[in-house]
Amino acid sequence: MKSQDYITLDEKYGAHNYHPLPVVISWAEGCKVRDPEGKTYFDFLSAYSAVNQGHRHPRILKAVRDQLDLCTLTSRAFHNDRMGLFLKKLCEFTGYEMALPMNTGAEAVETALKAARRWGVEVKGVKNGEQEIICAEENFHGRTIAVISMSTDPDSTVNYGPYVPGFKKVPYGDAEAIEKSITPKTVAVIIEPIQGEAGVCVPPAGYLKRVREICTKHNVLFIADEIQTGFSRTGKRFAWEHENARPDIMCLGKALGGGIFPISAIVADHDVMKVFTPGTHGSTFGGNPLASAIGIAAIDVLIDEKLDENAERLGKIFREEIAKMHCPKMKLVRGKGLLNAVLFEQGFEAWNVCLQLRDAGLLAKQTHGNIIRFAPPLVITEKELREALAIIKTVFEKIA
Ligand SMILES: *Cc1c(COP(=O)(O)O)cnc(C)c1O
After folding, report:
1. Is 140 a catalytic residue?
2. Last residue of a domain, which of 304, 330, 353?
3. Which residues line ligand 1 (CB under 6 A)?
4. What are the pLDDT digits (tens) for 141-190?
5. Do 132 and 158 fall within a single domain?
6. Which of 23, 144, 329, 366 is deepest in the core (most CB within 10 A)?
7. What are all long-range contacts of 328-332, with beta carbons under 8 Å and residues at least 24 apart?
């Protein structure tokens, strides 16, 4: 079968809830992917940062294979001999006392919202049903009904009502707007340290630190959604570290699964996590032995290969080189580490640029029409990055 045959199948039998770039991937390794016709591409999306360790990292594959021969699923009705080791590693890596494993990112966010609401009643003393959570406009936290109730994006929300109450939306990047919205019923503030889906929006310097101070001052939990920014993507293990603004709860996902498997979690200290008691939350697959084995290997790769340092160093080169390119339609390049985006003029259709990049051997996806995100696997080498930049340059400098 040819690429077009696979695309036809997807369109005929799959719900049309995505509009993918017309390219089919049938093989992948490191920062490269290949289509059925044998053409190789740089992957500059990394499955929205779920492939930070690179495609099919040998060490993570070995962990999968070894665990497949032992045990893959127990449910949480019994203990298994992997989950505790995984959660210990995750806690040590993040610097938190406890973790709660789930599967997808949206579930991690749901878990954080539930933790905050319960903490609000049981620790802060807010009456159940009156808890308020402050979120940021233009956020992306996932696709469930509660989570889209925080969204301001019509694509995510239209005709999905009734929405879940209890959320207040304030402009992103404006810490004082958060403080003004806090009432005695506010239990948490949830933000992305950098808004990924919104187009890699980096907030003003000092924002995260200020949010941390405001939350502390008003006895409100600071929840950071690090699902896309976490696990070394921005040049630090977690993006809050850029401002030393340690959250009370972190939502984690994507790269925690090492590009293999959906694995998510929240981490927090005991004084927050203690609100969960037997039966009050759970997931059949959360913390399963296969996921736990993968999670351990995924974290080990980030540490041993110093992928945070690689992201920091190569990210600087990427932004410097892009800024030098001659492209009249390009307005700016922004980002941290290897989470970057190029912004074109308002009204410019970046989709066509993505098609040209594809033809030239590099896969990237536009967001909001005029923005292209560039986020390769963090295992990319400087040599590979410079090859990729040469591809981008030929395409960008042809844009009229
Ligand atoms: C991808 C993402 C999510 C949702 O993760 P899923 O695994 O798709 O449910 C939540 N928050 C952020 C910041 C994300 O980038």
Report:
1. yes
2. 304
3. 48, 104-106, 109, 140-142, 192, 196-197, 225, 227-228, 253-254
4. 999 999 999 999 999 999 999 999 999 999 999 999 999 999 999 999 99
5. yes
6. 366
7. 328/399, 329/399, 330/396, 330/399
